[in-house]
From TrEMBL:
<dbReference type="InterPro" id="IPR001680">
    <property type="entry name" value="WD40_rpt"/>
</dbReference>
<feature type="repeat" description="WD">
    <location>
        <begin position="104"/>
        <end position="137"/>
    </location>
</feature>
<feature type="repeat" description="WD">
    <location>
        <begin position="388"/>
        <end position="428"/>
    </location>
</feature>
<dbReference type="InterPro" id="IPR020472">
    <property type="entry name" value="WD40_PAC1"/>
</dbReference>
<feature type="compositionally biased region" description="Basic residues">
    <location>
        <begin position="926"/>
        <end position="938"/>
    </location>
</feature>
<dbReference type="Pfam" id="PF04003">
    <property type="entry name" value="Utp12"/>
</dbReference>
<protein>
    <recommendedName>
        <fullName>Small-subunit processome Utp12 domain-containing protein</fullName>
    </recommendedName>
</protein>
<comment type="similarity">
    <text>Belongs to the WD repeat WDR3/UTP12 family.</text>
</comment>
<feature type="repeat" description="WD">
    <location>
        <begin position="569"/>
        <end position="610"/>
    </location>
</feature>
<feature type="repeat" description="WD">
    <location>
        <begin position="146"/>
        <end position="187"/>
    </location>
</feature>
<dbReference type="Pfam" id="PF25172">
    <property type="entry name" value="Beta-prop_WDR3_2nd"/>
</dbReference>
<feature type="repeat" description="WD">
    <location>
        <begin position="611"/>
        <end position="652"/>
    </location>
</feature>
<feature type="repeat" description="WD">
    <location>
        <begin position="59"/>
        <end position="103"/>
    </location>
</feature>
<dbReference type="InterPro" id="IPR019775">
    <property type="entry name" value="WD40_repeat_CS"/>
</dbReference>
<dbReference type="InterPro" id="IPR007148">
    <property type="entry name" value="SSU_processome_Utp12"/>
</dbReference>
<feature type="coiled-coil region">
    <location>
        <begin position="743"/>
        <end position="770"/>
    </location>
</feature>
<feature type="region of interest" description="Disordered">
    <location>
        <begin position="714"/>
        <end position="735"/>
    </location>
</feature>
């Protein structure tokens, strides 16, 4: 009988506040800050400092890393949040529930820019594949693809109320697209290096773009042509001027606030410049002051020149009365925000700022931190900071206590205690660079640091109680010494260090401190001298043997009681970085930098099997308690599950986005926890689902084959053009496994329906000839539907974004069969839009063959008349409903008791009146006197 194993699946991911690759933005309500957390989105409540909603895809993979986020300016659309991922997919999310509404496939490489139209119904996405795609958010399908850029698209903005789109790229150009005619209106040059970001103010007066140039370029946006101007020479963007920047680093993000009065320029460093945007009146006043100063300087020069006998031409009177407004008159440097670490992204809050502030600005730092600042005319002050829920650097060790209800993780400057079931951070203790850790009961913990110190931590108080200078080199391992009865860590522990020493420690009696609380201390009782750096230490569960991995690639095994040499395990080509001994002391597994796992027998030290386990160094390996199953992690970002008896790979768990450094397993083996260089901690739970080795092998082979197929099919019949057609338009979607599967489903449905129709006709013919026939037995696969309804259900079940690519994959014969059903489907009112989409795609794809096929001409003629009438009926119905809703709105507005009628305006009036009263000093004094008088009388 084939042996079955239980499957492990990803259960929880925590520890990441904000990924450095992704930007941050506010949700449509302005209450939550959205930040990319590897392959998830996290919505943070800034005031409480807690995550509110988590947006997680159905699968976890490094190819799903979030690269860009956008939120809709209109909350009326359900899919009001969009995220762009490393595999080129775009996901639409519901802001309230956190559920994924749709997954859009169109880009061939990572998405790099996202922007919603002002209406929120259209989404524009740019990618590293140099293309811009427009998506219909409501229909959840692509509209068209815009080609023209020669390098990665870095930012997008909508102009003219969503009728035009501006895109910037690393090719140093800005392109303006007309979305109605789907062509490029203007190509703007001038930047001497890659353009990284741009933005437009709410009133669409200015567009500001930033690059590695020492200045920002400001463009005026022209809404319409001037009288008598040539259409071919009409430009949407016209250069207004350049603003000199304070920093020498390249621009990373340019963003306006909600009302367009401020613009933030964040560089690829620790600073962000905040400029004040003056209105036309203030700009003109500033220009007049500038000209007045210029006039005074000119008059002073003329007086000096007259004394020397020379004449200087005076300034024109027209320039003095109506001076030309320059870019420096409009944009004024207000503040410079300086952060403690490198800034990754900035975002202005769309909600009203606190009283006395101009705006609220949130930033993400590359040390896994979010900060929020209030911007004032005098200073920039920090309001909130979110940093407790994650480490500032990569996680080097994780360990569980004996009850599996506390998890400890270490990094370069802090130790954190977590609840492994919920992912909540319970304690944060400042410490050194912790490389290894272990619990002592449930109250104390030990941390070995890179500097060689041993730190004792009191978990209950969250304090560092003692620091012991244990080793002269970094401590690589802390291993509790088990008792003979199997109690772990009751006697003491062993440390291994780079100073060639293995030290044995015992716990001393708990001593009372000044506040009568018991504290833990340890003392060194034995030292084992080695000839090389100690990289790992492991002790058998019975406490009989201790294994020490050295820098010379060998593992030496000693007797615990006498410390006499027992075995030497040699065979690895590179140093052994990790190892573990099975529960019965029969096996020892070693993982090395040579990417191999070796399984040895503890009786004679013979190598049972050498396995090429990972594609990079093996960083940690652990046996599951009371089994010969083991888990290994490596720098190849994977977690692997093995059977050490059969030497078989059982399962590969993917999800980490960087090197996996450490691993710990619960005492019952029901879950494991891994820590990674990507600062995330992941919990993998054992499920009741069974897995079989042969099935997993077949699945891995299929995944490898499909990955190679995807890479080959992209340009099987021709290479990609390095230079696309100037301003060309293409199909928005791309071929994926889902679209191929959908095309196969349509073809199977057409064949099944055709066979069913033949059976029906044959049954009718027999009934006519014989007068009586057997009862017709319909096809069970069709589930009682007619052939037309069965095909319609199959076509309707395809996702809107995959429908176009699925139809493109149909051969002409099947396309002709599908078109024969469109006439019947058009009679269903709810399917008119679907029929029009199918008909349009098939006509564009097979136009030449359809026009030359006699059988298709009559079909096209009938569809032309029917679809025109059906679309006109739907359009009239929608227009009638819109008119009725406008009429109802007017009726409600005319009623005096209409709910919330002018509620916002009245609320603002009340607030202004209250603020005026509070600002009056005499009014405050009178109220105080009245209160004193009333209290005295009482």
């Amino acid at each position: 009988m084939v042996k079955a194993y239980l499957r492990y699946e990803p259960a929880l991911t925590f520890g990441v506040i904000a990924s450095p690759e992704s930007n941050v933005c506010y949700d449509p309500s302005g209450r939550l800050l959205l930040a990319g957390a590897l392959d998830r989105l996290a919505a943070w409540d800034l005031k409480r400092g807690l995550p509110s909603v988590s947006f997680a895809p159905s699968s976890s993979s490094s190819s799903l890393a979030v690269f860009c986020i956008a939120s809709s300016p209109s909350a009326a659309v359900s899919s009001s949040i969009a995220s762009g991922h490393a595999d080129g997919s775009i996901r639409l999310w519901d802001a309230e529930t956190g559920s994924c509404e749709a997954t859009l496939h169109g880009h061939r490489s990572a998405a790099s820019a996202l922007r919603f139209a002002p209406s929120g119904a259209v989404l524009a996405s740019g990618s590293k594949d140099c293309d811009v795609i427009l998506w219909d958010v409501v229909a959840q399908a692509g509209l068209f693809r815009l080609r023209g850029h020669r390098d990665q698209v870095t930012d997008l903005v909508f102009l003219d109320s969503g009728k035009k789109l501006a895109s910037c790229s690393k090719d140093k150009f800005i392109r303006v697209w007309d979305l109605e005619t789907q062509h490029c209106l203007q190509i703007v040059g001038g930047h001497r290096s890659e353009i990284w970001s741009m933005d437009v103010d709410s009133s669409e007066r200015f567009l500001v773009s930033g690059s590695a140039d020492p200045e920002l370029r400001v463009f005026r946006i022209r809404q319409s042509m001037e009288e008598g101007e040539d259409w071919s020479k009409w430009d949407v963007l016209k250069l207004f001027g350049e603003i000199p920047r304070q920093s020498k680093e390249r621009v990373a993000t340019v963003r306006f606030n909600r009302d367009g009065s401020l613009v933030a320029c964040q560089v690829a460093g620790k600073t962000a410049d905040i400029y004040r945007v003056l209105d036309e009146t203030e700009a003109m006043r500033k220009a007049k002051r500038r000209m007045h100063r210029k006039k005074e300087k000119a008059s002073a020069k003329s007086m000096i020149a007259e004394g020397n006998g020379t004449v200087i031409d005076p300034l024109p009177a027209q320039d003095l009365q109506n001076p030309a407004v320059t870019v420096t008159d409009v944009f004024k440097l207000l503040q410079v925000l300086r952060a403690s670490k490198k800034i990754c992204s900035v975002s202005f809050s769309p909600s009203n700022p606190p009283r006395g502030c101009l705006a609220t600005l949130s930033i993400s730092l590359n040390n896994n931190t979010l900060e929020t600042y209030s911007v004032d005319s005098e200073k920039v002050s920090k309001m909130y900071s979110i940093e407790m829920h994650g480490h500032r650097s990569d996680i080097r060790s994780v360990s569980l206590n004996s009850e599996d209800n506390l998890l400890m993780s270490t990094s370069h400057n802090a130790v954190k205690i977590w609840n492994p079931s919920t992912g909540d951070c319970l304690r944060t203790i400042d410490s050194g660079y912790g490389l290894c850790s272990a619990f002592v009961g449930n109250r104390f913990a030990l941390v070995g640091t890179k500097s060689g110190t041993l730190e004792i931590i009191d978990i209950a108080s969250g304090s560092l109680t003692e620091v012991i200078e244990a080793h002269a080199g970094s401590i690589r391992s802390i291993v509790p010494i088990p008792d003979e009865d199997g109690t772990v860590g009751a006697r003491g522990f062993v440390t291994g260090s780079a100073d060639h020493d293995v030290k044995f420690w015992e716990y001393q009696q708990l001593k009372k401190s000044d506040d009568d609380s018991k504290q833990l201390t340890v003392t060194n009782v034995r030292t084992l001298k080695m000839t090389e750096d100690v990289l790992a230490v492991s002790i058998s569960p019975q406490g009989k043997h201790i294994a020490v991995a050295l820098l010379d690639c060998n593992v030496k095994v000693y007797h615990m009681d006498t410390l006499k040499h027992f075995l030497t395990l040699f065979g690895h080509k590179l140093p052994v970085l990790c190892m573990d001994i099975s529960y019965d002391g029969a096996l020892i597994v070693t993982g090395s930098a040579d990417k191999n796992l070796k399984i040895w027998g503890m009786d004679f030290g013979d190598c049972h099997k050498s396995i090429f386990a990972h594609s990079d160094s093996v960083m940690d390996v652990k046996f599951v308690y009371r089994t010969h199953y083991m888990f290994s992690v490596g720098k190849d970002r994977t977690v692997k599950y093995w059977d050490a008896d059969k030497f078989e790979l059982l399962l590969t768990l993917e999800g980490h986005h960087a090197e996996v450094w450490c691993l710990t397993i619960s005492s019952r083996g029901d879950f494991i926890v891994t820590g990674s260089h990507d600062r995330s901690i992941r919990r993998w739970d054992r499920t009741e689902e069974q897995l079989f080795i042969e099935e997993e092998k077949e699945k891995r082979l299929e995944e490898t084959f499909e990955a190679d197929l995807d890479n080959d099919n992209e340009y099987r019949y021709g290479q990609k053009d390095d230079a696309p057609d100037e301003g060309s338009v293409g199909v928005p979607g791309r071929k994926t496994k889902e679209t191929v599967t959908s095309a196969d489903a349509i073809m199977e449905a057409l064949d099944t329906a055709e066979e069913e129709l033949k059976r029906l006709n044959q049954h009718k013919l027999e009934e006519q000839n014989n007068g009586r026939a057997a009862k017709f037995q319909p096809n069970v696969i069709m589930q009682g539907h007619s052939p037309s309804d069965y095909v319609l259900n199959v076509v309707s079940s395809i996702r809107p974004n995959d429908l176009e690519q699925a139809l493109l994959a149909l051969p002409f014969s099947d396309a002709l069969k599908l078109m024969s059903y469109l006439k019947e489907w058009s009679l269903v009112p709810s399917k008119v839009e679907l029929v029009c989409r199918v008909c349009l795609v098939l006509l564009q794809t097979h136009h030449n063959q359809l026009t030359t096929t006699p059988a298709a001409r009559s079909l096209l003629t009938e569809l032309k008349d029917i679809l025109y009438c059906r679309v006109k009926e739907c359009k009239d119905t929608i227009g009638f409903n819109l008119a009725a809703m406008d009429h109802l709105k007017e009726l409600l507005a005319m009623r005096s008791d209409a709910p919330f009628r002018d509620a916002k305006a009245k609320l603002m009036e009340i607030r202004q009146e209250l603020s005026k009263r509070s600002d009056r000093p005499d009014g405050n004094e009178k109220r105080k006197k009245k209160r004193k008088k009333a209290s005295g009388e009482s």
